Each structure stands twice: as C-alpha cells, then as structure tokens.
Amino acid sequence: APVLERIRFDDKGLVPAIAQQHDTGEVLMLAWMTAESISETLTSGRVVYYSRSRKALWRKGDTSGQTQRLVAFRWDCDRDAVLVQVDQAGVACHTGRRSCFYFEAEKEGVKEVLEVETEPEVLYGTVAK
Asked: Is the pTM of this model over 0.85?
C-alpha cells in the first residue's frame, strides 16, 4: 500500500478529504477517510468515506443513490489532506444541494447561494438537519 504510507493520518486514523467535480473544479463536500476507506476507494473506483457519527465506512450513495466515481486521488504537500476528484451522480449534499458549500458571507450577513435540487425526503425518506 504505497499510497497509504504517504498519507499522514491524525491520531484517530482519519484524514480530511475534499471532493471535487473532476471536469468543472466545483468543490462538492468535505468528509473524512481512513486507510480502509482509501483502499476500498482505490480498488473499487467508487468513493468510500468514514462516518464519524456512525463510526463506520460510508459508501457514498448507498442510501441516496448519489454516488461518486473516482477519477483521481491526490494529496497535499503536507500529506495531511486528500483531494478526491470525482464524477458526482446527482447532488453531493445531504440537504439536496449540488455542493455542501452553499453558505456565503456578505457584509449584510449570510446568504444561501445554491438551491435545493432534490428534496432530502426523496433522497433519504427523512428531512435533512
């Protein structure tokens, strides 16, 4: 596992992972990966993260159908963050937006810059929090 030897995981065995749409450069989300999720991602070509709340592997799209196909896997110069370039099927955010980065700071306050594309109830059968 030469790739895993090059990644610097934190004391919990995690590394932050930025998901980016490969052809547009759009930043989709920030999640966490473990050595196991990276290995599975590189082997299967389907992006797998680690859910800190569930303490389990999170195969993106298992519940919602909004999968991420791996196009490229990179890491930064400090080796403590990874960039997962993906082909995103549908929306990336559990709120039903294309990207999780939909809040924008302005002098007057905060505005939402992305609309909901798919209602969370449709994706998960529940309301997003």
From this structure: yes
